[in-house]
Amino acid sequence: MAPLFLTACEQDRIQTICETTPQFCADLHEDSWCKFERSDLIRARKQQADTPNDANIYALMASLKTYHDCLDPLLAIEYTKRKERKNDKLEATIKAKTALIQLEQQTIDSDYPYLLLWHWQLRGDNKAKARFISLADRTEMQQPELQKALAELLIIRDSAAAEQALHRALSLYDAEATVDSEIIANLLTLYIRERRYRDAWIWTRVLSSLGHSAMLNLERIDPYARFDEVQQRQMQQAVDSIIHQLETGSYHRS
User: Where are the domains of the chain?
Assistant: First the structure.
């Protein structure tokens, strides 16, 4: 009964928001399609109104895009009995897109890292990309996903800086957190490209130990496994140490 109870409570909260602050709900569709995306957008609007800042603007933009992208494919559905439902969704989709474009223009000069990534990744803004890279050592950049994004921008032109960002990303995880396997996959790509066979051997086993063996192409990795038993024991000790550090939130590059 717990999930049903929580869902009911959530709907009560959304209904309360819509009754007390109808401006957060007035331009949204009303039926059950995309209801979770609709609820997330309502909450994001309220959060931004209550606490206006770049972080909440970013969250609102993400919610608008998710809501728009959920509704957009439904517009091709032909309703035979209640065509007003289609019109309802069409208007909501157009208004969500318009609101998103307005927020993009509003945030074009922001140095909030997630907004810079948005403008680079979704709008192809090279100035935003350059500004994001320039923030590499800032406190606000010390989050795993931001360091991962930084590394992906640097990996072609500055592999040393990319490697540093990837290790920093791993060091930012708390104990028992779920590590993004793509961070380790990016490390492997770098090590394989640079023929750093010992590092490739170690990190393939780290990735496998974390339950992501399906990501590994063993045919590419086998040539790096040509180490004698003593070397493999030493490297396995390094693997065990890395796994322990990641599990306890104490990872540091040795």
Answer: 2-113, 136-248
